[in-house]
Amino acid sequence: MAEPFAALVTFAIVATASPGGATSLATASGAQFGFRRSLPLILGIASALALLVAASGTGLATTILAFPFLEFGMKVAGSAYLVWLAFIILKAGPPTAANVSDAAPIGFLGGAMLLAVNPKAWAMAVGVASSFSGISDSPAALAAIFGSVFAIAATLSLSVWAVTGSFLARVIEKTWQWHMFNSVMALLLVSSIASFWL
């Protein structure tokens, strides 16, 4: 059991730390609002991912993805949501004391929504279930293991991205640099839509 579990942990770290929509959002939030105010977003993404991967251990994710119209609907909703989030990032200027205190960062529900309508995350969850189902014979135990591993991995990985964003906020000084940073973050978020459709 130790070897498949280690492989699951490694997979979870790589899957949650590699650049994509969630990491771009965590970085942008960390830069704009700091790590502490980005925590609800991070916990929303991590919780939704944990539930999704846990559901894959019980076979639920496979059942949902078996219906093409549901998968297509998720792709459309997920694409629209990511474009909207990218627009919010794009129009954000440099974080000043006034606009940071007035603005509300994307919270727990916004982070959870990102995962709920992300067909790539659902497909990854199905992949986890099929690749690592040998860890336990019990669907409940499998769901608990999958959920715990991915909750921890996502929380740690996204925290690193948010802290990186906070660090960048101290380095970026000029307004044009902020516009460039926000444009790059928005572009990365929009480019992650391609993974839905390919």
Structural class: mainly alpha
Which regions are unreliable across 5 or more consecutive residues at pLDDT < 50? none
Query: What is the alpha-carbon Rg in Å?
Result: 17 Å
Strand content: under 5%
For the termini, the CA-CA separation is 34 Å
Helix content: over 70%
Number of strands: 0
> The biggest beta sheet, please?
none
Average pLDDT level? 85
> Helix and strand string, N-terminal first?
HHHHHHHHHH
User: How many DSSP helices?
Assistant: 10
Shape: globular
* Count of discrete domains: 1
Question: Overview of this structure, please?
Answer:
The chain is mostly helical. It has one domain. It has 10 helices and no strands. Helix 1 packs parallel to helix 8, helix 2 crosses helix 7 and helix 2 packs antiparallel against helix 8. The protein is globular, with a radius of gyration of 17 Å. The two termini are 34 Å apart. The relative contact order is 0.24.
What are the key terms here?
single chain, 198 residues, mainly alpha, 10 helices
